[in-house]
Design brief:
Blueprint: E1 10-15, E2 18-23, H1 34-49, E3 55-60, E4 65-67, H2 72-76, H3 80-98, E5 104-108, E6 111-113, H4 115-122, E7 125-129, E8 133-135, H5 149-157, H6 159-168, E9 172-173, H7 174-177, E10 185-187, H8 192-204, H9 208-221, H10 226-241, H11 244-254
Parallel strand pairs: 2-3, 3-5, 4-6, 5-7, 6-8, 7-10
Antiparallel strand pairs: 1-2, 8-9
């Protein structure tokens, strides 16, 4: 069911526990504008509040582009201070996506360049068609990625590959990116949506709070010392351990049966029942 107006910059489709957000500027290769970024942020607010939504997929309208970067016409008119603020706004939304409590999937159906590539890397997973193209073309315009691309690329593919993509400015095919490690599922263009939904539905079967704790803990692993990471892991394990869903999972394993679906919020403490 699609609930957003077709003129909206971001369309929303609810498919069971999976929410699909579609960047809707196909005539402009889905390039970002401040208004589009604001609407995407608003859509993430709504997805975060909706308990029925367990996984979010982000994609682009049309067949040519996921998101082909930022709107250059708007950037040209900015001075240095305005450009700095624009980069901060973009980073804020994409970092929010990186830290989003629910699993996120970038369904890349075409060009994912510049800000579009940064958007994809900010998601937990990338499902890409064989027609997708990835790259940071900023260096060819004598500038650099500014919405977190330099940092996300190192975390998602390692220093050497990140330097290769940022400093060459090339567009890389899905086939070339197979060995880079940042694409999780590959599909032909006609099968892209079904592949993304199948992956999302697999994630949606897991308890939402357990996934939130797992994601938060894994995200910190690349940023803090090992001892601090181990302490955080133990603490988050304990927080999740006290939920109804976790206790049911352990009891089900011991009884050699499948866990029952929780009828209450998974954050409910077992002791409070």
């Amino acid at each position: 069911m699609q609930t957003a107006d077709d003129d909206s910059l971001v369309l929303m489709e609810q498919l069971g526990a999976v929410r699909v957000l579609t960047i809707n500027r196909a005539d402009k290769m889905n390039a970002f504008t401040p208004a589009l970024m604001h609407e995407l942020d608003h859509m993430l607010d709504d997805a975060a509040r909706d308990n029925a939504t367990r996984v979010v997929i982000i994609t682009g309208a049309g067949q040519k582009a996921f998101v082909a970067g930022n709107d250059i016409d708007g950037l040209i008119e900015m001075n240095g201070v305005e450009a700095y603020r624009d980069m901060q706004r973009g980073q804020r939304v994409l970092f929010r996506l990186y830290e989003f409590a629910k699993p996120t999937i970038a369904m890349v159906n075409g060009y994912a360049l510049g800000g579009g590539f940064e958007l994809a890397l900010a998601c937990d997973f990338i499902v890409a068609s064989d027609t997708a193209r990835f790259g940071f073309p900023e260096i060819t315009l004598n500038t650099i990625p500014g919405w977190g691309g330099t940092q996300l690329a190192v975390r998602k593919m390692g220093l050497a590959r990140a330097k290769q993509m940022v400093l060459t400015g090339r567009h890389y095919t899905t086939a070339e990116c197979r060995e880079f490690g940042f694409i999780h599922v590959f599909a032909s263009a006609p099968e892209l949506k079904s592949a993304a939904l199948a992956f999302a539905e697999q994630l949606a079967t897991h308890d939402s709070f357990a996934m939130e704790m797992a994601k938060r803990t894994v995200n910190r692993a690349a940023e803090i010392p090992l001892n601090a990471g181990l302490d955080l892991e133990a603490a988050n394990y304990a927080v999740n351990f006290d939920t109804t869903a976790a206790r049911e999972g352990l009891r089900a394993f011991a009884a050699r049966r499948k866990p029952k679906k929780a009828l209450t919020d998974s954050s409910t403490s077992e002791k409070s029942k």
